[in-house]
Amino acid sequence: MRHHAFGRTPFIVTDVGFGAWQIGGAWGDVSETDGRAALNAALDAGMTFIDTADVYGDGRSEKIIADVLKARGGARPMVATKAGRRLSPHVAGGYNKANLEGFIDRSLKNLGVESLDLVQLHCPPTEVLYRPEVFAGLDELQKAGKIKGYGVSVEKVEEALKAIEYPGVVSIQIIYNIFRQRPDHLFFKEARRKNVAVIARVPLASGLLSGKITRDTQFASDDHRNFNRHGEAFDVGETFAGVPFEVGLQAVEEVRKLVPAGASMAAFALRWILMNDAVTVVIPGARNAEQAKANAVAADLAPLSADIMAATREIYERLIAPHVHHRW
Predict the structure, then answer these.
(1) Torsion region of 57: left, alpha or beta (phi above 0 gives left; psi -120 to 50 gives alpha)
(2) Widest Cα–Cα separation across the chain
(3) pLDDT mean by block of 10 residues, the chain; 328 residues
(4) Where are the alpha helices (DSSP H) in 126-238?
(5) CB distance 325 to 62 below 8 Å
(6) Beta carbons of 161 and 223 less than 8 angstroms apart
(7) Would you say 62 and 54 are in contact if contact means Cβ atoms under 8 Å apart?
């Protein structure tokens, strides 16, 4: 895997990282044993970036990460977490320094560290991005040593563009994949200009772009691909990247024809993301060690041809864009 700077921070990360939502919850039954095995496999493959959040399993994900890293010893990977979604109700007014400091203190304890490598506002209401006092509070927490840096995880391109107006924002986490191509239209250009790190999340469109999901696939009751299919629990763009399920399956069959011989569709979809040099790290999740190993393979695939990239754009514009492009 390639290593490069994480934006303006001193961290060096691999271009494929580990998304730790699955080992926390909301993806059906993933045992702690499988979660630990998945993380260990990712680290064994050389990944040096882990993304988690305080609400993934109500801290379960953070605690698993802490235990695994303590047991392994040696050089630590960069660990990014998120804060804000513990608010109830989840409203802009809750994003104040006192609440954020409380969430950060909890994550410090869960992760067993004295300072967080990166804390990200966790898809806050858009209004938060128009409140300079929120970012001034994060600046103070950084000066106090509780965080080494901060960024924002967003739903919409417009939110990303607004967030990077704040000079302290060092990273943006945004959905970017074959089914969500709008970030490349303007945001990536601005991120490059300001040397802001880009974390590409939901890279496989909740598993659609693994090519393994069919119309008959059954999802557990506690899997967001069941309970958030229409945005019942959180933004529908987080589930199947906001693409209607049947439309997504149709597009997957067309994408499948573009996958090089010997490569999995998941690795192809991840390599597609890495073709864009604005992306700092892509964070596929994994429910077990085998999936984590398969994700790591993406970094070793040969670059995709211009013809293949053009073909994926055509599929997107014809089938997917009418459903997602102007929403996020």
Answers:
(1) left
(2) 54
(3) 95 97 72 91 97 95 96 96 97 98 98 98 98 98 98 98 98 98 97 98 95 93 90 92 96 97 95 97 94 92 97 98 96
(4) 132-143, 157-163, 187-194, 224-227
(5) no
(6) no
(7) yes
pTM, two decimal places: 0.95
User: Alpha-carbon distance 125 to 154, whole Å?
Assistant: 9
- The strand pairing partners of 107, in sequence order, are none
Question: What number of CA atoms fall less than 13 Å from residue 91's CA on the CB side?
Answer: 3
320: Cβ–Cβ under 8 A, 6 or more apart, which residues?
179, 243, 247, 248, 251
Q: To 5 degrees, how large is the angle CA 254–CA 257–CA 261?
A: 155
Residues 208-240 have pLDDT tens digits of 999 999 999 999 888 889 999 999 999 999 999
